Amino acid sequence: MYLRSLTRAARASTSTSTACTRITSPSIRCFQSSARSLAPTFAATQQLPPMTSQSQMRSAHAISNPTLAGIEKRWEAMPPQEQAELWMQLRDRMKVDWNEMTLQEKKAAWWIAFGPHGPRAEVPPGEWTKVWLYTAVGIGISLATFMLIHGMARPPPRTMTKEWQEATNEYLKSEKSNPMYGISSEGYSGPGHVQSKSAKAQGIKLEPDDGIARSLGRSALARPSISRRAFEPLRRQAVPALAQRWASTDSARDGKIHQVIGAVVDVKFDTEQLPAILNALETDNNGQKLVLEVAQHLGENVVRCIAMDGTEGLVRGHIATDTGSPIKVPVGPGTLGRIMNVTGDPIDERGPIKADKFAPIHADPPEFIEQATTAEVLVTGIKVVDLLAPYARGGKIGLFGGAGVGKTVFIQELINNIAKAHGGYSVFTGVGERTREGNDLYHEMQETSVIQLDGESKVALVFGQMNEPPGARARVALTGLTVAEEFRNQGQDVLLFIDNIFRFTQAGSEVSALLGRIPSAVGYQPTLAVDMGAMQERITTTQKGSITSVQAVYVPADDLTDPAPATTFAHLDATTVLSRGISELGIYPAVDPLDSKSRMLDPRVVGQEHYDTASRVQQMLQEYKSLQDIIAILGMDELSEADKLTVERARKLQRFLSQPFTVAQVFTGIEGKLVDLKDTISSFQKIINGEGDDLPEGAFYMVGDFESARAKGEKILAELEKS
Fold this sequence. Notes:
Blueprint: H1 2-14, H2 25-38, H3 54-64, H4 69-77, H5 80-97, H6 103-114, H7 125-152, H8 161-174, E1 177-178, E2 183-184, H9 197-201, H10 211-215, H11 228-246, H12 250-253, E3 254-261, E4 264-269, E5 280-285, E6 288-299, E7 302-307, E8 319-322, E9 328-331, E10 339-340, E11 357-360, E12 377-378, H13 383-388, E13 391-392, E14 396-401, H14 407-421, E15 426-431, H15 435-447, E16 459-464, H16 470-489, E17 493-499, H17 501-514, H18 528-536, E18 546-554, H19 563-569, E19 574-577, H20 580-584, E20 597-598, H21 603-606, H22 608-634, H23 641-656, H24 665-668, H25 677-688, H26 706-722
Parallel strand pairs: 10-16, 14-18, 14-19, 15-16, 15-17, 17-18
Antiparallel strand pairs: 1-2, 3-4, 3-8, 4-7, 5-6, 5-8, 6-7, 9-11, 12-13, 19-20
Helix pairs in contact: 1-5, 1-7, 2-5, 2-6, 3-6, 16-17, 22-23, 22-25
């Protein structure tokens, strides 16, 4: 528009319609020859800097004017038509290849365009009014367009202020440390003031309400009162994180199912804004919600996901929506007494779970400064455990054993004893085990009042049984851990039972194979150690509360060197090994007293009396084990009197390590016993010192303390006398 006005001005100065003559190659060559013919006049002038505005061009004219007499004469000698044609040629040449003109040509062009006798000299006032008017209108439209685009690219500063601030503060309060977005709520002191840990480490104090807050819609993050250079890394970290979390639109979050291969589902998105790894996608499968977890980015806007449920009936073209976060499950007191699956949906047919809070199943472990390092024994009421391999409060205990040696019954007894003795909360996570066992456990807990349908329950159940897809079995342990973490953060001492941690590893191996990763030793996934460590490091004690984890570990073919149980060993504070040989003797729990270990069996932790008693018991049992070969070949008669006494007491100790369980009462008919630690220590001391030498071996089988054994022995002796 501005150029058209200049053209009309040129027409007005020449009063001829030929000013709009089509520019052709001959005319450009004519201009070049004319400009070159004028160039010698400029040879004596100084070189001028490049000009970018009309005022600069006028200044160039003022400086060079005394030396332009030759150009004036040639210009004045031209007829008006040639002047108009030369001006039009000049204008088009300046648009096309101004940078290719020589300095002399440029100087001549400037003078012709803006000199006192150029086309602008005789422009009527009305034409220039239009020029300036069009210029002002164009600038106004450009500014309005820029402001409109800029406003659409960021949230409105007023209408979104409260919503963004509340959402951000609630998110930061609920997440002590968020691995997905790199933002920490450490230092939170109310709305509008958050101090990140990276800022604390640099000694930076964050003040509310400035540029960074405005860029986020005043979302409770603030710019520190420091230099821009020091603050820039924090801004780069915070702004994209929250913007990605809250500024995505529905259209960008929706994708279409591209391929379905069993539990693997590929989803294609229309844009390059793909969901993050471990994000949850939701789709509809025959009226049922199906959750997918992003595992890989394949390229061409396609993500590969693992289904958390069966994919039967799922077809290409179905819409899958990115939830913007990992799988979130209900946490808090509302989960007590309820059974839920890997995605937090109730499966006990008792309606929805009444939870006020949801938490993602993927999270970072607590910081080192948040963890507690005090050593304290957790009394379980099971004699063999409390004496020989005591559990640490807030520790990780591995329950090793082959198939059918009593791992699940042992865990059920622990849940029952902890609920009775300590009144704490428990979380039971069934990972890839039998559905029948989970059903039996649920009803047994109701019978023992651990779960009260109309009252206060002490346990939450999370099941991903062996009929579930590998994705569910690989993530259900994290769901149970997330529920336990919330109780710990509320100041509770929580017991987390995982039955079976081997199935967690096995499911991870299946998922790894589905994703096409090359397997490592014995066919396990190459990321076995990483997957195990990521979960185990979250099980710890903090300044607020503790999580004590008991993990049943299936040992394939009773081989403790298998990579799955061997990887688990590195994370455990205590190991309880269930022996098939002891179970064949009918001694339950079938805990091997010589293979079971604990770092808590230290005189500085348990006390000297406890340590000495446990050492003497293990020594006597070890001597008996070494004498078994001689006994099998030569018999008891070939032993010395001291060895005979050792064998007799060791056999009584071995039977005294058995104990009736409350949860097994329906099978054994024997009332369960919960033995205090002091009674356990004193009872074993009496047997070692020979106070039970007059009692038969059967008196020590399936009893609680030593007094119960004496009463049972006297009863047996009385029956023998009668017979």
